[in-house]
Design brief:
Elements (H helix, E strand, L loop, with lengths): L1 E7 L4 E9 L5 E17 L8 E3 L1 E4 L17 E5 H8 L6 H4 L4 E4 L11 E4 L2 E8 L22 E8 L1 E4 L3 E3 L1
């Protein structure tokens, strides 16, 4: 048996505490700390152009990623959890692996329990979360039962509050 609780440390690290019963039935407590980090960056110059992997990007105040086709509005910047992106990329049968791309892939994002309005410091920039998750594509092959595992539930959209440079490997904090 296993019980899990998660708490935000306030600095971007997520503390996960869980208990397990050992082979003798005794409860053992474990703790794990998860830090958020930029794993990958992508830019799409035109709406239907393939996304290009980049090592560094400039986030522009009041918008999104410089030179990206959707660098305006409340959904100017898209963020996606690293593990969810890997699942979609490697063997996922949903349409998200063909249709959705995120500007910034972040490890630990799914564990962060973000809310609309939260601010994240990403590299030298600060973004504000404007939307959590995205609906599965209506024509997606995932059944209603599997939709709960849709990788798009682990994405978020944001607008840039304070511009700055972001690179792969940068820390992400609240």
């Amino acid at each position: 048996k296993r019980g899990v609780s998660r708490a935000d440390a306030g600095d971007g690290r997520i503390h996960t505490r869980f208990a397990r019963q050992d082979s003798h039935g005794a409860a053992r407590l474990y703790a794990r700390e998860t830090a958020m980090k930029v794993e990958r960056l992508f830019l799409r110059a035109k709406q239907h152009a393939p996304p290009q992997a980049i090592g560094r990007a400039l986030l522009v105040s009041g918008g999104g990623m410089a030179l990206d086709w959707r660098a305006e509005g409340d959904q100017a910047l898209s963020l996606w959890d690293f593990d969810a992106q890997k699942r979609a990329e490697h063997g996922g049968k949903g349409l998200c692996r063909q249709r959705f791309f995120a500007n910034i892939i972040i490890s630990g994002l799914a564990d962060a329990r973000l809310h609309t309005g939260d601010a994240l410091a990403i590299g030298g920039a600060v973004v504000q979360i404007t939307q959590i998750g995205k609906r599965c594509f209506p024509e997606c092959a995932l059944s209603a039962e599997e939709a709960l595992a849709c990788p798009l539930l682990s994405c978020a959209f944001a607008k840039v509050e304070q511009g700055g440079a972001v690179s792969a490997g940068d820390a992400v904090s609240r």
